[in-house]
Each structure stands twice: as structure tokens, then as C-alpha cells.
Amino acid sequence: MKGLDNLARKFLYYPDRLPTDMPPPRWAGNAEEVWLECEDGVRIHGLWWSEPEDGPVILFFHGNAQEAYSWSLMHEELAPTGCRLLLIDYHGYGKSGGEPHEAGLYLDGKASLHWLYDMGIEDADIVVFGKSLGGGVACEIAQGGAFKALVLESTFTSLKRVARKLFPFLPPGVPLGEVYDSIAKLPRTRSPILIIHGELDELIPVGEGLDLFEAAPEPKELYLVPGAGHNDVSLVAGEEYARRITRFLKD
Fold first, then answer.
1. pTM above 0.85?
2. Quick one: pLDDT at residue 8?
3. 132, 158, 191, 234: which one is catalytic?
């Protein structure tokens, strides 16, 4: 079964690599490049926006494709929230070392949290934000912590639940080697939870978001975006996207 496990992993992760000497793109603005070391010794790369100085911090875990330079466009979309932003690349993505796998991504999440702790930032000032695959990482590290908020956008309950959508070429019941059982972890979350999902998501059906919302403890809020698919939630929502997130963080 190991070959099939590796095949599933191959079609789950789509990392883009970046040259280590490549500077951040112009649209990243005043982002600072940072390096973090994971418990397994792998160094990962990220971008850090330190303004506004006293604002909360969004710790952003991106989806399964591209890299931090491409995802840095999120900074502009989230800037109206008044939050600082740490955006990291997983094992094997961008300038980060290693190869992507579930345990490795969880180590990336833990390293990101500890980097913020070393900066003197406490849980109460951290918004753990996961988009798509990143939602699995966010749910893992949010367990037990009293964070300012947990935000999950366009993500799934567990990999098994969406396997037929993501891996239609695999026989039913094949062990995937990756689990990402987020719905089992949500009840252990002690943070306010915001679930965001496009109503027309063709990859991760909106029912996944609804089930996550049902499993989430209070306080929680559901934000469904009419007409939005998987990759265009913020674009379809427009200015309302940042407004809804900002309002949730202030309530």
C-alpha cells in the first residue's frame, strides 16, 4: 500500500520552489523575510508584516499549491483588519527545506507559533487562520490554546471525507497516508471560531464547512459567500470579506 500512499501524497501537495536568493515580490510591500527551525531540524521560510505595531497577529496557513510569495497577496486583502501577519511556507514549499507531509506541516505550524512567542506575542493576540489545506494545520495547532480566534476558510472536515473529490483515480477505501482529521480536533478548541466558505465551492463542498461549523464549540460564526467557489472567496466577497473578519475579531 505504500506506493498508493505516496501517490495520494503526490496529488495532495503542489509545492512551487523558489531560489533562496530571490527577493520578495513588489506586491509584498514591506514584508520581512524570516527563517524558522522546526523540531525535525528543517528550516522553513516565511514573510512577516510587523505593522501596525500594536495590532493582533494573523498566523496564516495557505493552501496546497504555490508558495508564500504568491500567497502574499493575502496581506492586502487582510490589511483592513488592522492585524500584523505571519505567512509561512510548509516543508518543501518556496524556500523551505524538506518535503511536504502531514506531520511536517504540523511541525511548521508549531514552529510558527513558537516564533511568535519568541517575539513576545501571546495566544490572546494571535488569530490562527487556515485556508483550504491550511485549515488542517490551523485545527491541529489551535487545540487547547485560548487564541484570539480560529478562522477556517474553504477547508474540509477530514481528508477521508473529501478523498473521492480530490483523488477520484484511487480505489475506494485505499489508505491515504495522510489524515487531517480537523472535525475531531475542533471540539478541543478554546478560541472563537469563524468558518468561511464559498457556496459554490467545486473542490471542497460547502457541506464540509457546514459540518465543521456544527462541530465547533461556541462562540462561533458562519460566513457563507454566495457565488464563490474554492479559490475566489475574497474576490467574490469584495470589501465585505475583510469587514466580516474585522467585525468577528472585535466582537
1. yes
2. 65
3. 132
